[in-house]
Structures are given as C-alpha cells and as structure tokens.
Amino acid sequence: MNQKIQTVMVTGAARGIGQATAVAFAKNNARVVLCDLKADSLEETTQLVKEAGGESLAYGVDVTDRNAMAQMVEDVKKQWGRIDVLVNNAGITADAQLKKMTEEAFDQVIDINLKGVFNCTQAVLPTMLEQNEGVILNASSVVGIYGNFGQTNYAATKWGVIGMTKTWAKELGKNGIRVNAVAPGFIATPMVAQMPENVLDMMKNKSPLNRLGKPEDVANAYVFLASEEAGFITGSVLSVDGGVVL
C-alpha cells in the first residue's frame, strides 16, 4: 500500500468484512479509525488491529447521525491530523418480498445503506478537499448489479451506491480524490454463517470456484483500491464474487 496513506476510516468495523478490512489496512501500516453503532462492539477489532501492528481509534457512532459523524471526524483530525481513506462499509438487511415488505423495513435499509454512505462521505469530504487528495471506497454488492429475490430495499441501496460512486468520481477527480466501489458476492460473514446448510450449499454452487468468499477477499480489494497501484482507477465497481452469476 502507498506509504502516504496513513489514516483509514472504516464504518461497520465490528465484525465481518469491516473487521477484516480494518485488520488488512493495519497490516499495511495504516492507522485505522474504527466506527460502529456501539463502541464496546469494537473491542475485538481493536485487539486484532493491535496484533497486526496497527494503531486504532474506536467510536460508537450511528451513520444516520450526521452530527455524530461530524464530531468524530473533528476528533480524528485533532488526534491524527488527516483522513486519507474512507471505507463506507456499514450496512444492514431487512429482507422480504415486495408484497410483504413494510415501509419501516424499506426506510431503515435506505437510511443506513444509502443515506449513511452520503452522511459519512459528506463528513469526511472537507478534510480530503483541504488535503487535495483522498480515497473513498463504497460497499455495493452483486445484488446491486443483478437484483435478488426478496431484497427490494437492499438492491435499491446497493445500486444507488454505484450511482453515487460514479457521480462523486466525476465531481472530485479534479481535487485528487478517487472514488470506487466494491461489489461482493456471497461472503462467509457471521450473518451468512447462520443461514441453513442447504442455502449455504446453494450459494457455493453458484460460484465457479465452488466456495463462499472470505471477508479477507473483500478487504484485500479495498486495500488495493486505496493503494498507489490503483492510482488511475476511479469511478469503477470491482466485483469480488468468485464469478457468481445471479
């Protein structure tokens, strides 16, 4: 990873892909800002980052709370001076077929998965503009590209994230800021691990590699896109899905 990249902020860092991403950046000599809904949920990630040789700051922040996000950014700037990379990873699911999906479930997923990305990016953007450089990485999904049964709300957010990614890449390139998205497929996160065995087998069979992805597979994609080696990549969506076709 580019040695100039010093401070990385990861939302949804308590477990799964967010946790793996924080650890992957720590292994690449980054200081990591850990953000999740509850500060005490970040204790394990904080320890893993330390074991990887990295420094971290942990914040219990709701990505739907714009004021809390702004306060967190100000605190990070006071302590570390800058924010080089933002990984907008936080997200939830609330699945149901269209005919059964409640307005509450629709709004909740939109607020966190889509508006949360907007909130976090707006909070960090002034710092990156001052620096005249930065990297914004957004969590989309193959569901946002192909759709998926029972995920009207989730698919809408992940498609929306792609639209924001491409728009911001056009707007911010002149300021030295690159913006990309990662679209994971079926990843073996704690949430997925709770699914029935037959569903997990179905997911594996959809991939030519005949396995679920690991959180580290997605984390490594984020580290690459934040690096100098990816310095001419912006406005792109990198699928990390094992070749799955939905």
Describe it for me?
The protein has 246 residues and is an alpha/beta fold. It has one domain (7-187, 216-233): NAD(P)-binding Rossmann-like Domain (Rossmann fold, 3-Layer(aba) Sandwich), CATH 3.40.50. The protein is 48% helix and 15% strand. The chain is built from nine helices and seven strands; from the N terminus they run βαβαβαβαβααβαααβ. The protein has helices spanning 16-27, 43-51, 66-80, 103-131, 142-146, 152-172, 190-193, 197-206, 215-226; strands at residues 7-11, 31-36, 56-60, 85-88, 134-139, 177-184, 237-240. A seven-stranded parallel beta sheet has the order 3-2-1-4-5-6-7, with helices on both faces. β2, α2 (43-51) and β3 form a beta-alpha-beta unit. It is globular and about 50 Å long. 45% of the residues are buried. The mean pLDDT is 95. One of its GO terms (molecular function) is 3-oxoacyl-[acyl-carrier-protein] reductase (NADPH) activity. Its EC number is 1.1.1.100. NADP(+) binds at residues 12-15, 89, 154-158, 187. Belongs to the short-chain dehydrogenases/reductases (SDR) family. Pfam families: adh_short_C2.
Q: Which labels suit this protein?
A:
246 residues; alpha/beta; Rossmann fold; seven-stranded parallel β-sheet; 9 helices; globular; 3oxo_ACP_reduc
SSE arrangement:
Layout: E1 7-11, H1 16-27, E2 31-36, H2 43-51, E3 56-60, H3 66-80, E4 85-88, H4 103-131, E5 134-139, H5 142-146, H6 152-172, E6 177-184, H7 190-193, H8 197-206, H9 215-226, E7 237-240
Parallel strand pairs: 1-2, 1-4, 2-3, 4-5, 5-6, 6-7
